[in-house]
Amino acid sequence: MESVKPELSPVPIWRCRNAECKVWIREELAASSSPECPMCKGVMMRGIKHLPKLIKKHKSVRKTKDEADAWK
After folding, report:
1. Which Pfam family would be a valid example here (predicted)?
2. Nearest to 25 by CA among 42, 8, 2, 5
3. CA 35 – CA 49 distance, rounded (Å)
4. CA angle, corner 34, sides to 9 and 24, nearest 5?
5. Residue 34 DSSP class
6. Which residue(s) pair with 9 in the sheet?
7. Whole-number Å distance between alpha carbons of 37 and 35
8. What is the pLDDT of residues 38-61, one digit of tens each?
């Protein structure tokens, strides 16, 4: 049985400059426009990784007032 490999695309990332630290973050998920490393608090630099596309698992649904009141 063959497993299907996801399609990869170039994704902008932030990568920690510290050689011992392997942390990286997708640019679209970074907390700021120039984030610090969440693990070692070091400086991060921009880069590119070839990654699978993110799949959004849920849709934002607006509830009507009646639906919101039903849970009270």
Report:
1. YdjO
2. 42
3. 17
4. 45
5. S
6. 51
7. 7
8. 999 999 999 999 999 877 776 665
- pLDDT, mean of residues 17-28: 95
pLDDT at 25 > cutoff 80: yes
In the DSSP assignment, the letter for residue 58 is: -
Query: How far out from the chain centre does Cα 53 lie?
Result: 10
Pair 44, 21: CB distance under 8 Å:
no
How far apart CA 42 and CA 62 sit, in angstroms, is 40
Q: pLDDT higher for 67 or 56?
A: 56
Sequence-ordered list of residues with C-beta below 8 angstroms from that of 35, at least 6 positions apart, any chain = 14, 25, 44
In this structure, the number of other CB atoms found within 10 A of the CB of residue 14 comes to 23
Three-state DSSP state, 37: coil
3-class secondary-structure state, position 68: helix
